[in-house]
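lol ok so funny story. i was supposed to be doing the assay writeup but got distracted and ended up predicting the structure for this chain instead. priorities right. anyway since i did it might as well share w the group, maybe its usefull for someone
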Amino acid sequence: MASLSLCSLAAFLSFLTLVHARIPGVFTGGPWQTAHATFYGGSDASGTMGGACGYGNLYSQGYGVNTAALSTALFNNGLSCGACFEIKCANDPKWCHSGSPSIFITATNFCPPNYALPSDNGGWCNPPRPHFDLAMPMFLKIAEYRAGIVPVSFRRLPCRKIGGIRFTVNGFRYFNLVLITNVAGAGDIVRVSIKGSKTGWMSMSRNWGQNWQSNAVLVGQSLSFRVTGSDRRTSTSWNVAPANWQFGQTFSGRNYRV
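and the output, tada:
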């Protein structure tokens, strides 16, 4: 009986090790696919600020003009926020720049459907079309302004970011709304957990975009975060916010290896 109990314990510990084992390697991206691209936001991309991913000022958050709004087919109800893409103008020699230069963008916004217009004449972001509405400066790097819309080839790429994952803690005493930005690797996020210095790990729920919420009272405790990307790789940032943190502050944690 004792031998059986020891075997059961060993099997259980082995299971826990597998559950918490780190997935080796790095995010490698995806295959080339086809879509179309337009542009918005003006020549300085000022019209692209804010957006459905919740990033706010894209300049101060480090995204700059290398951004795009994604159609319903690509946006995936906000799950694609933060994903990075390589895009090339394709198969339109009249409007594509010679040499088919690449641009690299981060998904920061949603391009809503326009059902009042046909999908091939103004309703560019209507389902099921994969479509990128690029910040204007990025569109002009791959095509002529007068084109308006061009066919493109695109693929997912690992996000390369400077510095750590950033956690901006907003809310009030029993409502924590954490905006997560500057995520390397897969870039997008499928799961977030938070831990106070006096609590265990608690799952957070997606409020909107990359804003994640917890209703626990964590004031006066140091905070740790655990972030999981769509490739199931996890990054844990221990005690990144000190016990005297205040709402509105931003803290930098451990980023993914690229």
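The mean pLDDT is 91. The first helix runs from residue 2 to 20.
back to the writeup now i swear
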